[in-house]
Amino acid sequence: LRGSRSCQRRAQLGPAEPVGSLVLASASPRRADLLRAAGFAFTTRPAAIEEWPYGGGDPARYAEDLARAKAAGVEGEVVVGADTIVVLDGEVLGKPRDHEEAASMLHRLSGRSHDVITAVAVKDARGLRSSHDRARVTFRPLPAGVIEAYAATDEPLDKAGSYALQGGAAGFVADLSGDPQTVIGLRISLLCQLLQFPAPCGKGQTGDGRQG
Known about the structure:
Layout: E1 5-9, E2 22-24, H1 29-37, E3 42-44, H2 59-72, E4 78-88, E5 91-93, H3 99-109, E6 113-124, E7 127-139, H4 144-151, E8 173-177, H5 180-184, H6 188-195
Parallel strand pairs: 2-3, 2-4
Antiparallel strand pairs: 1-7, 4-5, 4-6, 6-7, 7-8
């Protein structure tokens, strides 16, 4: 694995640590698993927003805008929103509408490289701030039968780009440049930067920065 890139925008920093309990504004079990594995105590409260389609411009800004909308749409002392997109030839691939679209996306990704961008937003007493991280993923050439069999499962249906790195698509990947957590949906070190926790961050942390 090679290094990943992250970029923070619209982050006006205040006191050293956020105050309050952590709320994950996402229904994604993968993000919850990553938080749990990092030792965070949190509650889950999915944001009730309708994701709007990509309308052009910087894909990373689009992902950040979605993450910020999710964080802003949920009540809590410290709210974390996130969004993940796949970018191929400048086109944003979101979640497929059905199994057929999932197969179509996977055929396009087969044997090629694409970017995965995960944006993270944090809302607390100091306001709303966001950042994003980018990873580069290269797929092996995938036989049509493998694509059709995988697309026929439910796993691709709630995943950007129609695949899960931590699931049945792990064997699709020939190369990954960046942090695997970015591809899964929540880079913990990026979240820690936004929470302004001192390094190392994660194990035993609660939303108010105390050791649990």
